[in-house]
Amino acid sequence: MTTEVAASSDVTAADAPESGSSEYENEPVPQHARRSLISVGAVWLGFPMILTCAVFGGLVVYSLGFWRGMLAIALGNAVLTGYVGALSYLAGKTGKNFALIAIGTFGTLGYRVVSGFLATVVIGWFAFQTGLTRSVLASSAGWDARWTALAAGIGYVTVTLLGIRALSVIGLVAAPLYLLLGAVAIALALRNSTLAGALGYGGGAGGAAMSMGAAVTLVVACFIDSGTMTADFTRWSRSGRQGFWASFAAFPLGNAIAMVIGGLIVALGAAPSPGTDGGNFLGALIGAGGWLVPVSIAFVFVNLGSVCTHCLYNGAVGWSQLTGQKMRLLAVLLGSVGVLLAVLGVWSQFEQWLTLLGVVVPPIGTVLILDQLVLPRFGFTTGDAAIRWESFGAWAAGAASALAAHLWAPQFSDALVGMVTAALVYVAIRHARRGVSA
């Protein structure tokens, strides 16, 4: 299927704003405005290389032990690499953001449900990361939680207003800073432990340990929302192939590195509360004193600011396309809601949030990939429609099966169950309709 959404007007290089301020919210990014592989890759590189992923990587290793934890991290990142990579290829090929791509699969009216849902969900993730900023600095540095969340949130909104270029810059700063301080934290931990001891770590969760399937879902759910909306970033790529490689900077590269560092911190015994805070290594850095204290505090704002600005950009681009308003206006409005939630303490509900993401979101991208990348190669084509009911049916079936797995078969990965079910149902419906039309 090659349904295209025409731009409101042809844009030439001469028409493009010299300031580069246009975010092309409501049309495909024209070729003259596309960015280099390094620039788009930088947007994705710093996004998952964050303290949050160290927390989750540590939780996985605490539950499964070092080697089984590494396997879960590898499997989850393999899923994200294929999933986000395919959607990024589609984005680079067409220049469309997520909302415009969703029109072809869910319909000219139906896409509003999917795009509105994800553009709202990702603001929740912005709120969680802003809340984590408050939580980390309150526990590690003794800062006032609410004022910290408010100040951080305002700063993150301000950076988002600068657009895609600012996301590239913050990614280029956040990634090396994470690598530097992660290495310092590991070096500090090795003073009281050994690498051999970490490799032999068997886990500490006991009867409360998560299953391998649940661990894989945790890895996938950590970035499945923005991963599904990857087109908002990778639409700036010059081709489909460059879109794929730009997302590769995040999955598996940046995300895996961040999680492995968190897992090592737990395995080395350097995490004070591995059952709740996973591989959060900020306390160890601040505890070391000296120059690490101000650098660590700056690190929190840059590092978590990276994911917050990306998520807010996702939400603002999505809602700007739905409402016809400018991205920057929506960033201010949605950011204000996210900051309020962070001030109210939304971070404490992150486990339930990840469950929702792992159950509901993966089938959406699965249907998009099949509809626009896979099935057309086998001669399956469709026309325009207001609502593509087969796409919604496959999404619903995938989400229902993922929820069933979460409730009654926790040994399986909710995310994978949902993706496989959605794929099977969608292919079956399309095949049946093809037979009827023939």
UniProtKB/TrEMBL annotation:
InterPro entries: CodB, Pur-cyt_permease. Residues 1-16 have a biased composition (Low complexity). It is a multi-pass membrane protein. Its main location: membrane. One of its GO terms (molecular function) is cytosine transmembrane transporter activity. The chain crosses the membrane at residues 42-64, 70-91, 98-127, 147-164, 169-190, 202-224, 244-271, 291-317, 329-347, 353-375, 387-409, 415-432. Gene3D superfamilies: Hydantoin permease (1.10.4160.10). The keyword Membrane applies. GO terms for cellular component: plasma membrane. It is found in: Membrane. Keywords: Membrane, Transmembrane, Transmembrane helix. Residues 1-28 are annotated as: Disordered. Belongs to the purine-cytosine permease (2.A.39) family. This is Cytosine permease. The gene is codB.
